[in-house]
Design brief:
mainly alpha, 269 residues, 13 helices
Length: 269
């Protein structure tokens, strides 16, 4: 069977498990607040506190100026929202197979859905960031536009890229537990190297071209184009082709690596 056919069969299997994925994702989100007095209120408190702290440090402490007359809090939130959903997906998916060893050992259970479950659960919490962003835009008296809906395109791209990585790291983590530590370090470094708190235009053209090799920058800039500057995604045709080329390649490679290592999971766990 060819590689393409294997990949198509892999995606068909995921589609057939969509109801189970949705149920497990809702259960995962709910489990985060079991025994908590405030319950799901923490879903709003955490991002609000996080954004507030970063805003205070960079806007008040470092005297960061508005970006192109855009309030710094809005500019920051539009950039930090896609990064944090990406980081949450990768961090959570890395240990998803190991943490669900009892399910993975069952013959009929398909472990490849576990990273997908993590993506769905993270998207639920990501919606809170979006509500906060829209609230900040409203409070600042900024324009509302149908361009806001363009973020769905960038979010879909982020999910494709993240799923490929999630399949790779979750499969490798079963055999090499250091993968979890390595992923944490890479995400921490990536957080500061990605233009989230600073304007990439401050860098030289050569450095900019290097930083733009990071596919997540495409998504972060896309969120800002959607919510702030209203730039359509087709205005960056070459960068768009690059992003989707890399993302689809990572997705296919991730699916194939997971499929290759999956038969050995039960023996190692």
């Amino acid at each position: 069977m060819g590689i393409i056919q294997k990949f198509i069969n892999f995606l068909k299997l995921l589609h057939g498990q969509r109801q189970l994925i949705w149920t497990m994702a809702k259960r995962e989100v709910a489990s985060d607040y079991i025994g908590s007095f405030l319950g799901s209120v923490w879903t709003f408190v955490r991002p609000l506190v996080m954004i507030g702290v970063f805003w205070f440090v960079f806007s008040v402490g470092f005297k960061a100026k508005p970006m192109n007359d855009v309030p710094f809090a809005v500019w920051l939130t539009a950039g930090i929202a896609p990064w944090f959903v990406f980081a949450d997906i990768i961090n959570g998916a890395t240990s998803s197979i190991v943490n669900n060893a009892n399910l993975v050992k069952k013959t009929l259970f398909q472990p490849q859905i576990l990273p997908v479950v993590k993506i769905v659960s993270c998207l639920m919490t990501h919606s809170v960031f979006l509500f906060i962003l829209l609230g900040l835009i409203l409070l600042q008296g900024m324009e509302f536009s149908l361009f806001f809906l363009q973020f769905l395109y960038y979010l879909a791209g982020l999910c494709v890229f993240a799923l490929g990585i999630a399949w790779i790291v979750s499969a490798l983590h079963v055999f090499l537990r250091d993968v979890g530590q390595l992923v944490g370090v890479i995400l921490q470094v990536g957080f500061w190297l990605t233009p989230i708190f600073w304007d990439i235009n401050l860098m030289s053209p050569k450095i900019q071209s290097i930083l733009k090799l990071n596919p997540i920058y495409y998504v972060i800039q896309g969120y800002r184009d959607s919510f702030i500057t209203f730039v359509p995604f087709w205005h960056h045709p070459l960068y768009t082709l690059y992003f989707w080329g890399v993302s689809l390649m990572v997705l296919v490679v991730g699916a194939l690596i997971f499929q290759k290592l999956k038969p050995q999971f039960a023996d190692v766990l």
